[in-house]
Amino acid sequence: MKVIAIGRNYIDHAKELNNPVPASPVIFMKPDTAVLKDNKDFYYPEFSKDIHYECELVVRICNEGKHVTSKFAHKYYDAIGLGIDFTARDIQAEQKAKGLPWELAKAFDHSAVISNMIAKEEFESINNINFSLQKNGEIVQKGNTKNMIFDVESLIVYISKYITLRKGDLIYTGTPAGVGPVQIGDKLQGFIEDREMFTTHIK
Ligand code: MG
């Protein structure tokens, strides 16, 4: 499986990092070794001093798809979860300044927290789901999928023009405003609506 992640998919987040609002989706990837599931602890890596959380709605792909059209995009995902796109913001800033790819800042081991998945049928619409992140019991991020610049089905159409989607792939759909650093000892808890989806302790 692979993780495809979307950058700058909420206007308020693009602005908080002084990035332009993109005209087409910003795509990057994480390898399967990035996935961190089952509420396992996240160990702060020695190569960064500025690891940030980015809480994101995640969709799971259920069919192989290449050149998916918008009419059929809904057939290509079956479940929804919540995750964190951990980002080494210090490394990313260096890479951005040099015009280099983001992999070392984004694709490192355990940088993709993922919750258990919920069947998409449990939601009235993929385009109106509230989610939030708490750090040490305080809400730090709140989003609703209706505020995405590119909605889930447009992302499936766009990505599959370039990259074949396969069953089990995950799409991290971008983070709303409120990203920030974590420290050893922090506890992160993600929620979809009122449902607790994951807990991650920073060790
Ligand atoms: Mg992100």
Write a short abstract of this structure.
With 203 residues, this protein is an alpha+beta fold. The chain has helices at 11-16, 89-98, 103-106, 152-162, and strands spanning 3-7, 26-30, 35-36, 51-53, 55-61, 77-85, 87-88, 112-114, 118-119, 130-135, 138-144, 170-172, 180-181, 187-192, 195-201.
| Text of the CATH class | Alpha Beta
Distance between the amino and carboxyl termini: 27 Å
Tally of DSSP helical segments: 4
Residues in helices, as a percent range:
10-25%
Basic shape: globular
The CATH architecture comes to Alpha-Beta Complex
Q: What's the alpha carbon Rg, rounded to whole Å?
A: 16 Å
Q: Outline the biggest β-sheet.
A: 8 strands, mixed
Q: What is the strand content?
A: 25-35%
**Overall strand count:** 15
Q: How many domain units?
A: 1
Mean residue pLDDT: 96
The stretches of 5 or more residues where confidence is low (pLDDT under 50) are none
**Secondary-structure element pattern, one letter each:** EHEEEEEEHHEEEEHEEEE
What key attributes describe this structure?
203 residues, eight-stranded mixed β-sheet, 15 strands, binds magnesium ion
Written overview of the protein:
The protein is α+β, with helices and mostly antiparallel strands and 203 residues long. The strands form three sheets. Strands 1, 2, 3, 5, 6, 8, 9 and 12 form an eight-stranded mixed β-sheet that branches. 15% of the residues lie in helices and 34% in strands. It has four helices and 15 strands. It has a single domain (3-201), classed as Fumarylacetoacetate hydrolase, domain 2, CATH 3.90.850. The longest helix has 11 residues, at 152-162. The protein has helices at residues 11-16, 89-98, 103-106, 152-162; strands spanning 3-7, 26-30, 35-36, 51-53, 55-61, 77-85, 87-88, 112-114, 118-119, 130-135, 138-144, 170-172, 180-181, 187-192, 195-201. The model has no long low-confidence stretch (mean pLDDT 96). Strand 10 and strand 11 (138-144) form a beta hairpin.
